[in-house]
Specification:
By secondary structure, the chain is an alpha/beta fold. Helices cover 40% and strands 14% of the residues.
């Protein structure tokens, strides 16, 4: 029986595309100026779904471009209301411990949480910030287990990224639920794979 649900934030609770263009405009402008058009197009897509530091490494950014981009990203805040995915609302009243574990810049991620008005949905909220620490999502999952005396069998990690939270949970032996509303992933190691949260409710019944 599951006792703890661990949610990702970006593209799991809400769609990044709904705010990405406006929010990241200063960073996009810098990258567009410094990168060729094909690389820029790929980078712009990737920064919506993975940590910037990983993107910078994949595309071999110069140190100057990386640092200039990081400085802009550290200053970003979301100051507009964000609507969660409609089917996320089905999870708000679940009588089970829920945690939010998200990766990104601390102040930016907290501003999204506040604009989404979801602080009270979770027992605890953890922000994994590669700009400040080497702590990973896997480390946080272990911390949650130990702090609340769960077994790994009693936990379920829910997210959109097979290479991030899903991979980290799989290594630990935690069951995983890949939330994939746009059907982007044809193959995955996730235990559960669905385009909605309706399937999640079925698992917990």
């Amino acid at each position: 029986m599951k006792k703890a649900l661990i949610f990702d934030l970006d593209n799991t609770v809400y769609p990044v595309a709904a705010i990405g263009a406006q929010l990241f405009a200063p960073v996009h402008a810098l990258l567009e100026q410094k990168l060729d058009s094909d690389t820029y197009a790929r980078v712009r897509e990737d920064v919506t779904r993975m940590p910037f530091q990983k993107v910078a490494k994949i595309y071999a950014f110069t140190e100057d471009l990386k640092q200039d981009s990081l400085q802009l990203l550290r200053e970003l805040r979301c100051d507009e209301a964000i609507e969660p995915y409609e089917d996320y609302l089905q999870t708000k009243d679940l009588k089970i411990d829920k945690f939010l574990v998200t990766i990104g810049f601390t102040e930016l991620q907290w501003s999204k949480v506040k604009q989404l008005q979801i602080e009270n949905d979770f027992k605890e909220i953890y922000i994994v910030d590669p700009d400040k620490s080497a702590i990973t999502k896997k480390d946080i999952f272990q911390q949650i287990k130990e702090k609340y005396n769960y077994t790994y069998d009693e936990m379920l990690v829910i997210g959109d990224d097979p290479e991030s939270e899903i991979a980290a949970a799989t290594v630990l032996g935690i069951d995983t639920y890949l939330y994939d509303p746009d059907n982007r992933h044809s193959a995955t190691k996730a235990i559960y794979h669905s385009d909605s949260f309706t399937g999640l409710l079925d698992i917990l019944d």
